[in-house]
Amino acid sequence: MSEITAHLTEIKNRIDEACKKAGRNRNDVRLLLATKTVPAERIKIAIEAGETLIGENKVQELKEKYADLQTIIHEKHFIGHLQTNKIKDVLKCGVTCIQSIDRIELAEKLNQRLHFEGRKMDVLIQVNTSAEESKFGISPQGAIEFTKQVAELNCLQIKGLMTIGLFSAETEKVRQCFKLLHSLKIEIAKLNLSGVQMKELSMGMSGDLETAIEEGATIVRVGTAIFGKRIYPDSYYWNENKK
Ligand SMILES: *Cc1c(COP(=O)(O)O)cnc(C)c1O
Asked: How many Å apart are CA 243 and CA 240, to the nearest integer?
C-alpha cells in the first residue's frame, strides 16, 4: 500500500471517529483533498483509491494538472484566493464550485462571465472567522449583507460557507471560529433568500478536522495529513498581495 493510501485510511478513520463522537451521520461529511503543490500522479493515487473530491488554490496549478487528471473521474473545487483576471481560466478547468467568494467585485465579474457562457456555478462564501489580518474572507459582521448581495447574482448558486480556522494549538479558540461560521449559516438560512441554500459548511483541515466536524462541518479540506508537508508556507497561498 502506498503512503498516500495509508494516510487516507488514517484520515477516514479520524473522520469516522469524529462523526461517532459528535453523533453525526458519516455521509454528511465529505473529504476534500487539498492538492496544492501535489503533482497529478500523486493526486491520481488518491482518486484511484476511491476519493472523489479535490480542491486547488492556484489557477496556474489547476491549469497544469488539468490534462493529466481529465481522464480520471473526480470533482474539483477551487479553494484559493481568486484574482478576477483569472476567472476565465478557472471556468475552463472543470471546477464545479468556487469556495472562496470573498468580495463583491469577484462575485460580480464571475457572474458576468458565467452569464456570457450561459451557465451557472455553485459557490461558497468565504468568511474570515479568525479575524486575522492576513487571511482572506469577508468579515463575520459583513457576511450577511454580503451574502444578500451575492444572492442577487443569478448565475451564482450559493451553497454555504467556508472558512479557514485560527491557527492555534488551543482547540477552544479554533472551535470559536467554527461555531461562528455555523451560527452565520443558521442566520442566513433563516432569511430564505432566493437561490441560496445554506447546506455546506466547509471547515476543518489536517490539524483541526475533529473540532470542525463536532461543530457541523460538511466538507473537511485535508492536504498535509494525506500528501505530506509542502515546501511553501501557507502564507504563500493565503496572503499573497497582503501585508
Ligand atoms: C492548504 C489548504 C487546506 C489544507 O490544509 P492542511 O493543513 O494541509 O490540511 C485547506 N484549505 C485551504 C483553503 C488550503 O489552502
From this structure: 8
165 lines ligand 1 (CB under 6 A): no
**What is the C-alpha to C-alpha distance for residues 243 and 65, in angstroms, rounded to an integer?**
30
**How much is the pTM?**
0.95
Round to whole Å and give the CA distance between 196 and 218: 17
Which residue in 83, 57, 81, 84 sits closest to 135, CA to CA? 81
Which atom belonging to ligand 1 lies closest to the Cα atom of 230? 8
Is residue 242 pLDDT above 60, yes or no? Answer: no
Taking the C-alpha atoms of residue 157 and residue 142, their distance in angstroms, rounded to an integer, is 19
For the CA of 100, the closest atom of ligand 1 is 13
Nearest to 224 by CA among 6, 7, 5: 7
Return d(Cα 156, Cα 97) in angstroms, integer.
10
Q: What is the pLDDT of residues 205-215, one digit of tens each?
A: 999 999 999 99
Ligand 1 neighbourhood includes 126 CB (under 6 angstroms): no
Q: Does the Cβ of 36 fall within 6 Å of ligand 1?
A: yes
Please give the number of the atom of ligand 1 that sits closest to the Cα of 207.
7
The span from the CA of 78 to the CA of 66, in Å, is 13
Report DSSP state, residue 228: -
Is the minimum distance from the CB of 78 to ligand 1 under 6 angstroms? Answer: no
Ligand 1: centre distance to CA 185 (Å): 21
pLDDT in tens, 22-78: 999 999 999 999 999 999 999 999 999 999 999 999 999 999 999 999 999 999 999
